Amino acid sequence: MSHDKITFNLDGEALEVVAGTTLLDACRSKGAQVPTLCHEDRLEPFGGCRMCLVELDGAPRPVPACKTNVASGMVVRSGSDSLERVRGTIAEMFMAEHRPATGGRPNAMDKVAKRFNLGAPPIQFPERAQYHDRNRFIGFDTDACILCNRCVRYCDEVMQVTALEHSGQGPNAIVQPTDGLSFLDTSCELCGGCISSCPTGALYEKQSQGVEESSCDTTRTVCTFCGVGCVIDLNTKDGKVVKVTAEQGVGPNDGHLCTKGRFAWQFIHHDDRLSEPLVRGEDGELHAATWEEAYARVAEGLTKVKQEHGADSIGFLASSRCTNEDVYVLQKLARSVIGTNNVHSCAAT
Question: Is residue 206 part of a domain?
C-alpha cells in the first residue's frame, strides 16, 4: 500500500487518508456507524452482504464500503434515510433465513435487528437439516447461518486448509465441511477459527453449547501450551472456566488459536490435577508435602547423582509452557549450580 495521502469528502467534511484505504476503514476512523456482516478485518474484503452500502456522488447506486477504495475528490455519505431503508431491507432478508443461535456465541443479527427495529420476518426460509458431526469440538447450528462465508474464507485465507465449502443454491444453500464429510475426515485442524469468525453464532464450541458469553466473567491471560504467547480470555461462570476465546487485534495471535489453546482447558478443573507437591515415602507411595520438603528432596537427589556420576550425567528440559524468565532461571541452575550445559527447551525452533 502506498503511503501517499489523498483527500476526499465524507459526510460533509474533508478527510485525509492513506491511498488504498477502503471507504469502510475511512468511515470507521471518523466514527461513522456503518454496519457489516460478511466483513472481517483478518480476511480480504468480500462485499457479499451489502450491509455496508454508502452513497457515492456520481455512482448510479450505493457502493459497498468494504470493497471500494477511497479516491481523491470522492464525495461520500455514510448515512441517510434512503441508506437506512436499503440496509433495513437487506437485514430483513437475512432475518428470513436466520433463526436464533443455540450455541451461546455472540450473534450480530441481534444488533442488526435492534438497529433496524425488526421483528419477526414476514417470510421465513424452511428449517435446514441440522448437521450432526462426530467431532468433539465444533458444533454447527445450520439455521443460524446466513451464508456470509466468513468461516469458509477463514479456512481458505488464514488456515489454507479449505476444510469448509459453500454448497447448493437458494433455499438449499448450506455451508458444510468439504464434500459433506465429517470435520475429522477433511483437512480441518480443529483450530476453531471458523467459530471465532462466524458473526451469528452458527458455529460454536460443543463443550460449551448454550453458555452465553455475555453471562460469563472474563480474565485475560496468556496461553501456556507453547512459546508463541497467544493472548486468550478465560470465560468463567461460578468460578470455573467454561470456554476460551481470543479477541481480534490483540496480542501476537490476533484472535487466532490452535486446537489446544481453544479447546484443551478441561485440565484446569480435572480431579487428577495436582494441587500440592507429592514426595515418595519409604513405603514407595506418593504423599503430600510442603514445597520446602519437595525442593529439599530435589536438591538431595541432584546432588547425589552429580557426586556419583558427574555433572554431565544430568540434563534439564524446560517445558514450552514456561515463560522466558522461567527458562532463563533454569539454564542458570543448570550451568552455574550443577555445572552442565545439558539444557534444552521443547519450545526451541
Answer: no
Q: Cα separation of 8 and 215, whole Å?
A: 43
Predicted confidence at residue 290, as pLDDT, reads 97
* Strand-pair partners of 232: 221
Q: Rounded to the nearest 10 degrees, what angle do helices 81-96 and 108-115 cross at?
A: 140
Task: Mark whether 247 and 284 lie in a shared domain.
Answer: no
> Which of 255, 273, 291 lies at the terminal end of a domain, its last residue?
273
Return the pLDDT at 293.
96
Q: Cα separation of 150 and 164, whole Å?
A: 10
**pLDDT class of 3 with cuts at 50, 70, 90:** confident
Structural domain count, the chain: 3
User: Which pLDDT score is estimated for 343?
Assistant: 95
Task: Report the distance separating Cα 242 and Cα 325, nearest Å.
Answer: 29
Residue at which a domain ends, from 250, 273, 296: 273
Q: Which domain holds residue 307?
A: 278-345
What does the block give as the cell for 14? Answer: 474533508
At 121-173, the pLDDT tens digits run: 888 888 888 888 999 999 999 999 999 999 999 999 999 999 999 999 887 88
Are residue 301 and residue 338 in the same domain, yes or no?
yes
Mean pLDDT of 55-63: 96
Query: What's the pTM value of the predicted model, to 2 decimals?
Result: 0.85
- Cell numbers found for residue 207: 463443550
- Buried/exposed code over 315-333 (b: 16+ C-beta within 10 A; e: otherwise): ebebeeebeeeebeebeee
User: Are residues 256 and 321 both part of a single domain?
Assistant: no
Q: For 50-171, where are the alpha helices, taking DSSP H only?
A: 81-96, 108-115, 150-153
Q: What is the mean pLDDT of the chain?
A: 93
Model pLDDT for residues 164-176, shown as the tens digit of each residue: 999 998 878 899 9
Instruction: Report CA 153 to chain centroid distance, whole Å.
Output: 14
Q: In 3D, which of 240, 250, 236, 143 has the Cα closest to residue 196?
A: 250
Residue 311 included in any domain = yes
Q: How far is CA 108 from CA 27, 96, 100, 119, in A?
A: 19, 15, 11, 15
